[in-house]
Every structure is written in structure tokens, then in C-alpha cells.
From TrEMBL:
The keyword Isomerase does not apply. One of its GO terms (cellular component) is cytoplasm. It comes from Frankia casuarinae (strain DSM 45818 / CECT 9043 / HFP020203 / CcI3). This is Phosphoribosylaminoimidazole-succinocarboxamide synthase. Residues 14-267 form the SAICAR synthetase/ADE2 N-terminal domain. Coiled coil: none annotated. It comes from the Bacteria. It holds the Pfam family SAICAR_synt.
Amino acid sequence: MPLTHEEFAGLTHLGSGKVRELFAVGDDAVLLVASDRISAFDVVLPTEIPDKGAVLTGLSLWWFDQLADLVPSHVVSSNVDEYPAELTPYTEQLRGRSMLCRRLNMVQIECVARGYLTGSGLKDYQRTGAVSGHPLPTGLVDGSKLPAPIYTPSTKAPIGEHDENISRADAAGRIGTELAAELERLTLQIFGRASVLAAERGILLADTKFEFGHDTQGTLRLADEVLTPDSSRFWPEDTWRPGASQPSFDKQYIRDYLTSTGWDRTAPGPELPADVVEATRVRYVEAYERLTGISFKDYLSTV
Ligand SMILES: C[C@H](c1ccccc1)n1cc(-c2ncnc(N)c2C#N)cn1
């Protein structure tokens, strides 16, 4: 049965993402729980991918550590055996796939960095020649590497709707010039470091989305999940071919299967065959191990 917030009926549910749940823990903490659900073509599928939630949580935790010298994170703990007593009934459901975090006053802007042109950025470029007010060279195609990474803030759309890319001036108008400039600086700095680290492992970081918030002392912290295949586009470097849709590091098997079935994307997603589920699970574990250099089994033994 897919993990849903009903499984945590006793907790105070704050919100759901496509594949994640957010709960309040006391007055000053939140619990982020990653399910094994997966979405493709913006549709949440009925079949779970075992270990996906743990892989994405482990990746976020690893990236938070890699980035700690650049920006503090919202994470308090990921050790379920040290969680507050109210979470004890859910320990095994939370193990490896959850983060206890400071409750932040979230900045109402999605901070997106792009090193390559695709997705909504490509659509904006094809329509206007620019993305979030950044004029770009002519002749770029799907998957083109940009002359330099760009910061393209967007609004926070409700679930099921698409974020809207906005200009940096619009972002400043919404959250103030100083904070907007700090978010741009941090977003590009983090993206630059992550891009180098991923490229050293043969993975292109095409784009990613960060969320930030302020803690009760007013400290700006990196929040949400970070640099996971759900918040970012990761492409295998050896199959990068500008001019077409790039193979997704983690979801290509699912995309190919769904396309092969002739599935109508306005219809509910079909169940996935066992071989596609297992191949996708293996890809997630491979992504974790390739990026972190840590065996997934070792990660599971530490949580
Ligand atoms: C978008 C994301 C979300 C994830 C999962 C399910 C539904 C929403 N979300 C996270 C917060 C949030 N709020 C207060 N303090 C925090 N530390 C965080 C975080 N991260 C608000 N929204």
C-alpha cells in the first residue's frame, strides 16, 4: 500500500508533495517523510519503487553535509532512534526515509538553477528567447549547455500545477532586494559545487530546485530535499545529446515502458511490471552510490 499520511494518523499533517509528506513535531520542528511513490510525466504512479524514499533521503543528507560550509541546513536529525517520543510508534516506517528538521519560515520562492536548457526553461526560451529575464544566445536546443549557469526563480505552485518562472526583479519585489540577491548568490554557488561533484562522477546536473527558510533566530537555512533526482535533472554524461529529450538517470526505464504501452497521459498511471520496478530501484541505488561513494547497504545500517 503506498505510504500516505493516513499511515501516520496520530501526527499533525502539514502538507503533501507528490511523493512526500510533511508533519509538525511540537511547535518548532517538522518531519519530512519520503515515500517510495514515483511520478512520471507529472502523474503519480500506483506502483511503488522499493528503497526510493530511503535513497532520496540519504542523498539529501549527504548533500547537506557536502554543502555545510556554504549554508546551514534545516536538518536536526535523521536518526529515528533519537526522534521525539511522539514518533516512536512510527519508528520503522520512518527509518531511513525521514528527516527531523527545524520548523522554518519558508521563503515563498522556488530557487532554480539551470546549467542546461530543458523543461519550462526551454519553453520560455522558445517563446521569448530568454528564461526568467536572462537573454540567451540564439540557436539553443533541448539539452543545450548554457554559456553559464543561470538563476531562474519561480513561484510556488499548488500540487498538480506548474511553478511559473519569474524574473529576478519580480522575485525581489516579492521577498525584498537583499534576500533575493542572497538567494541568487547561494543558489548559484551551491549549484556550481554540486555540478562539479556530479560531473566528476560522470553525471550532468542539468538543473535543480532549492527551498530556503529562516529559523527563529533569523538564520537563513537550506531546506526541503536537495539535489535528488526528484528535485533535479541528472543526465548520464555519456548519453548527452543536445537536440532531443535527454535520458533521465532514474526514470528512463519507466518513461520508456509508459510510452511503449501507449498510455494516455491524461488517464491514471498504469501499474509497472516487476522488471521495470527492479531496474528503477537499481538505478536509484546506483545514483546514491555513484554520487556519494557510500554503499546503500552501509547507509541503511547507519539509520
Ligand atoms: C515543499 C515542502 C513540502 C515537503 C513535503 C510535503 C509537503 C511540502 N515544504 C517544506 C516546508 C517546511 N516548512 C517548515 N519548515 C521546514 N523545515 C520545511 C521544510 N523543508 C514547507 N513546505
